[in-house]
Design goal:
366 residues, Rossmann fold, 2 domains, 5-stranded parallel sheet, 10 strands, 16% strand
């Protein structure tokens, strides 16, 4: 199946980077078109069908949002990814209300970008593969956790509550973020914080995870708290960490963590730091299995000495001969030093002993 992606940015370096990144997907039938302006992008959209438009917000002649609407007028099913280096809140609100599939700030997180492209084109996700409940017990646990999250969200009037695993997959959720287009990037960044928190807890010799992170003053107040080495909770809302509410919110979140941890423990997931999945244990630190030796088994006897092969004997003799030559050479230089060390280097100079024999030293005639 043929799929067309249109990349629009007035910076050639950005276009080359995105094109090279998309080439790594190796999608059969994928065609990528590049243009540096909105006007040229409209010409390309008239020539080819556009399945995915990736455009910078700030373009010569028109904005990325304006281009998005004009391309969709011709290709209503086109998905759109917006890129921006701007932090103005009005601009961001405009992009959010435009209905883009995702919005990325520069520099672009390329792994998240590929994941969004795959989702936009309806391909199998390779960056964040979906997980499906494998048995009835897992389905019951999902239902139990979902109820806990929904009740918690209602009690504290939050906008969204997520249970995440260490790979950035959403295990359970209720509600949605203010900026849904940033969900993938936000979650992947938070899980990097989670991994760093595990290391800090290890260095601090903690037996259990006991930390939380608060981010306030943006589109949402965010509270992020680990539940176990492989799971964490994310809460988003407005006014959750205001000085009048922060203690109430944190205490409620700690209670939610306790209930979720209990639910996870019921299926064998614990909160101890040493309970890490075997696949994450470095090979260098994994201990080799020990096998008990029956008492009736005698220790192996010392192996008999085996004479060296003729080739080895020849090498040993050659090494001994070289060592003997080296010793002879050292003796030669030692004897030469003793014999000639006191001999003057010039014919016009005589030694002290020769001067004494010739009676040239003062006092020798007395």
């Amino acid at each position: 199946m043929e799929r067309n992606i249109l990349l629009v940015d007035d910076q050639r370096d950005i276009l080359r980077l995105l094109h090279a990144t998309l080439d790594t997907l190796k999608i059969q039938g994928l065609k990528i078109f590049e243009t540096p302006s909105g006007e040229e992008a409209l010409i390309e959209s008239a020539r080819h069908r556009v399945d995915l438009l990736v455009t910078d917000y700030k373009l010569p002649g028109m904005s990325g949002v304006e281009l998005m609407h004009k391309v969709r007028a011709r290709h209503p099913e086109a998905k759109v990814v917006l890129i921006t280096g701007m932090t103005d809140r009005k601009v961001r609100e405009e992009m959010l209300n435009a209905g883009a599939l995702a919005i990325f700030d520069k520099p672009i997180p390329l792994a998240d970008f590929l994941d969004v492209v795959e989702r936009g084109l309806g391909l199998v996700q390779t960056i964040f593969p979906p997980e499906r409940p494998s048995d009835e017990k897992t389905e019951q646990r999902h239902a139990r956790v979902s109820d806990l999250l929904a009740n918690f969200r209602q009690d504290i009037n939050a906008e969204a509550v997520f249970l995440l695993n260490d790979r950035g997959l959403v295990q359970a959720r209720t509600g949605k973020l203010h900026d849904e287009s940033m969900e993938v990037s936000l979650i992947s960044t938070l899980m990097a914080i989670h991994a760093a928190g595990l290391k800090v807890a290890k260095y601090n010799h903690q037996e259990k995870l006991a930390s939380y992170h608060i981010f306030s003053g943006g589109d949402n107040d965010l509270l992020f708290i680990p539940v176990a080495p492989m799971y964490a909770l994310l809460v988003a809302g407005t006014g959750l960490v205001h000085e009048d509410r922060i203690l109430e919110t944190v205490n409620a979140l700690l209670a939610l963590r306790k209930e979720v941890e209990r639910s996870l423990r019921s299926i064998g997931v614990t909160g101890e730091l040493h309970s890490i999945s075997p696949k994450t244990v470095p090979l260098a630190t994994a201990a080799a299995p020990t096998i008990p030796i029956p008492a009736s088994v005698k220790p192996a006897e010392k192996p008999a000495e085996v004479p060296p092969s003729p080739e080895m004997e020849a090498l040993l003799k050659d090494a001994a001969a070289k060592q003997s030559k080296s010793t002879d050479m050292d003796d030669f230089w030692s004897q030469a030093a003793e014999k000639h060390g006191s001999k003057p280097t010039s014919n016009e100079v005589i030694s002290l002993e020769e001067a004494r024999k010739l009676g040239l030293l003062p006092g020798d005639g007395k």
